[in-house]
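If your schedule permits, I should be very grateful for your opinion on a structural question. I have a record of one protein: its chain in single-letter code and its fold written as discrete structure tokens. Kindly check, if you would, that the fold set down in the tokens agrees with what the sequence suggests. I remain grateful for any guidance, and I place the record below:

***
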Amino acid sequence: MEHKPFVPEKTDLKEFTFRAVFFGAIFAVVLGAANAYLGLKVGLTVAATFPAAVMAMAVLKGLKGSVLEENIFRTTAAVGEALVAGAIFTIPAFLIAKDPATGKPLWSHLHYFESTVLMLLGGVLGVLFVSFLRKVLVEDKTLPFPESVACAEIVKAGQGGASGAKYVFGSILFAAFLEFIKNPVGGLALFKDSFSKFIHFKTSAINFLTTNGKSLMSKKFGGGMLLKSPNASPAMLGVGYIIGYKPSAIVFSGGVFAWLLFVPLLNFLFSGSFDSLIGQQINGVTVTETVISGAIWNSIVRPFAVGAMLVGAFYTLYSMRKSLWTGIKRGFKDLSKIKEEIEEGSEVSRLEQDLPFKFTIIAIFLLVIPIAMIYYFFCQSVAGAIVAALVMTLAGFLFAAVAGFLVGTIGSSNNPISGLTLSTLIVAALIMVTIGVKGGPGIAAVLGVAAVVCTSSGVAGDIMQDLKVGHIIGGTPWKMEIACIIGVIAASLVMVFPMQVLHTATPGGIGGPNLPAPQAGLMAMLAEGIVGGQMAWPLVLTGIGFSIGMILIGAPSPMLIAVGMYLPLESTFAIFVGGIIRVLADRFAEKSGLDKGNETFVNTGTLIASGLIAGEALMGMGIAAIVAFRDKLHIPNFSLGEPLGAWGGLLVFLPIAYILIKLPINAAKKNNG
């Protein structure tokens, strides 16, 4: 059956216009900044294709823009999120990884030039790699492209007036308002985000017996358990709603393992060692049971979780081995197939025109040169720089093909780019050690390879999703690919600033409890451990054993369980509450007479949840900027001192649950007439 796009091949509609690209580039930065905040906070990002599509309709409708202009706007805007998704998994690792020679982080702050170049080169390479693969992948009828099809339906509905913009922008404003009144650093601090309570265990005596029953010694233990409430976070609830109950429950189960099993157990065993510290001032911190529990989690449980994440990442890749292998084979087949078609010289339809093949090949080779140069800057070794550039180029193309295939199968939101990058990092690290590039320079070079591959894979997956939307709508591929490059450039040039502001203005910075950046922490620890020889291997190995056990009993997604252990409990708890709200919304929808999976209901809920994420993230970024420049600009402190305490935070869940349940149901009923 011949494909018939929404807009036919022959059309007079405007497409690649200044306003479409300009507004798209602005929103690429905005959506990228929002996802940087979210990714650093909980290690998850949300595909920006849906909110970008709605924003494109909202902005260009008033300017009487065409659907093809909206397509360019959306493509340009969405790539900002994809670029940042790759960047925040890797670049913050430079702030976390330590130089073995000095014991200090490789970077004390984000280096603008190096960070920007890594993002820019990785992002543009992702676009160029995908331009090879677009034709065969988007026309493959065996690939469902679930998120692309859903987005195309939103765009089509928007041409009839049903844009959904009010849901996105309304929830953005609501979430931004909540973040402003609750933020304790630069907002009103009206109430607490969450509360915690340390419950003491009664002192217990354990008699240690040998296997033949003879007593070795008797020892008394105490300790306790630190309980926490979920964060009153619209963004976390939105994430839980979008990913659904099961994934959110799996992430929360990791938090349960960490905070209700491992931390209490270690508190119990170490109670004698820590009791004498209670009440003391150490490095400006008053030691309490809560502080000790946090130290145990940060110093023992998180390295354990890194080992579990390592196995989880590779198991995720293993479980996708058939899809991965198919993607790899297809990537190389498509190269020769597309080259043959171009060399035939036949006239190519507007709907099939990609970037010129020769231009793309030359551009890739030219980009490898500055990549090798920046790797030399990191490691000061010609051999190391060449090897790093070769590993990056091969892995970059390979995983661009794989990412494109996986997006066609399971959607961009489920693209396992951190797992793909992890395997590249380990290969690069082992090669660096083999050729003698060690210590801080070796760690920096390995992280540089990981950064380019991760941004390339993230951008490749997102672009493939957008190109499929364009294929359905009737967009011109080469114009969309140029728009993607512009979006990459815009986001790359700016994105260091919001990340640095977050690092500076957030207590603990990137890698601390408020911005744990789990994937970057994992990359940093592995690079340190392999290249620098600095790793708590016993903890990592026991984490590996734990994850293997999870696999053997058939536990769903050991990777998500490990991420849940690495993240603060209040964050995973809030994500879980968002998943519960999704279950309740689905049940109320069915009771209201809606079909299961009603398209309007699902899309409206996704748009509202996306708005909640963007609203909190953007206000969080704004507040962080105010805090960073408060002294220079003489901005007063707005804090009210949290007069409503933790109860105010708990009340926030009610209106959020209401809008995530009631509004999608009402929208679906209205659409059904």
About this structure: The chain has 24 helices and six strands.
